[in-house]
Amino acid sequence: xxxxxxxxxxxxxxxxxxxxxxxxxxxxxxxxxxxxxxxxxxxxxxxxxxxxxxxxxxxxxxxxxxxxxxxxxxxxxxxxxxxxxxxxxxxxxxxxxxxxxxxxxxxxxxxxxxxxxxxxxxxxxxxxxxxxxxxxxxxxxxxxxxxxxxxxxxxxxxxxxxxxxxxxxxxxxxxxxxxxxxxxxxxxxxxxxxxxxxxxxxxxxxxxxxxxxxxxxxxxxxxxxxxxxxxxxxxxxxxxxxxxxxxxxxxxxxxxxxxxxxxxxxxxxxxxxxxxxxxxxxxxxxxxxxxxxxxxxxxxxxxxxxxxxxxxxxxxxxxxxxxxxxxxxxxxxxxxxxxxxxxxxxxxxxxxxxxxxxxxxxxxxxxxxxxxxxxxxxxxxxxxxxxxxxxxxxxxxxxxxxxxxxxxxxxxxxx
Length: 415
Fold this sequence. Notes:
Blueprint: H1 2-15, H2 21-37, E1 52-55, H3 61-71, H4 78-82, H5 112-131, E2 140-145, H6 146-150, H7 152-163, E3 169-175, E4 178-179, E5 182-183, H8 192-198, E6 202-207, H9 211-222, E7 228-233, H10 256-266, H11 277-287, H12 291-303, H13 307-315, H14 322-336, H15 342-353, E8 362-364, H16 368-371, E9 390-392, H17 397-410
Parallel strand pairs: 1-2, 2-3, 3-7, 6-7, 8-9
Antiparallel strand pairs: 4-5
Helix pairs in contact: 1-2, 1-3, 1-10, 2-3, 2-9, 5-7, 5-17, 7-17
């Protein structure tokens, strides 16, 4: 965990810009997740059945970059960490999807990540209903901060996730009670555990610096039939001698003297960006932990009679012949030239496309009858039945848009 802390404070200091406090505070939680629990393989970063990890608190990007580097993602080199926040680097100030392997979605606007993750968790359940446990059986983990949970979109997202009982969604809340302006008591007094419980989640609080307690809470969450919130009480910038636990460490470099004091306090005497060989070896070993699972999954895929269909879905490849039905429809329209509302025309097209494109997934924010987004063959998605192709999002437009992004990013669907 101290390797994450050191790399994070060193990179922010070198860039003279960034957020060192959150990575230093959540280093213990992230270490438990990546070293012991998360199913991932840096050598196969696009493994369809990998667990998804979303850093909703995207300002703490050095947490993710440090983890990707330490666990062995080839494109997240030490040089990239040293180029943090520099023009052209993979290590942008906030994680950018497509810049580097292991970044599942772009996060920066707070609350978007947790709402994207709802879409990813929903995609997993939908694909599981279609292809079974042998090919689709993974979790979606989120690290979110106070800001994510203050944003209105979080209310919509957790309500939707609780209603659909997305039990493979686990949110780790960086409960450090600090925001940029100062203590969170300046602006918010919500009981987050009660709020999540009211939306149909399991919720608990642990000491975020106690690895055993964190691990136990995650394993308990994995066994739940509900989505789970784990509030991890942490100290922002843990290890910094004067700035730990204060807003001063949130959005600016610690400074040379504070970093020197942190190195001493953490028992980390190494030069900037230096990780001792034995620690580096342990992290790389953690990155190889799921190699056996990947191999076993690959064998199941190779012997599955659904292999071609699954690979086509994940690649986004459209099935052969889908255009024929559309061409036939266009020919009829050209001949009859009906006068009808565009939303009705839209539904007619969806009625033709949906049976021919299995990845097409409809939905509406409580306006199904008005905007005609439900194809006639699209059954409803419910907590009891994930085999449908239509999502009743309720009056949750913001979460709907973000969840659709998550569905698309996960793969397997065109929402």
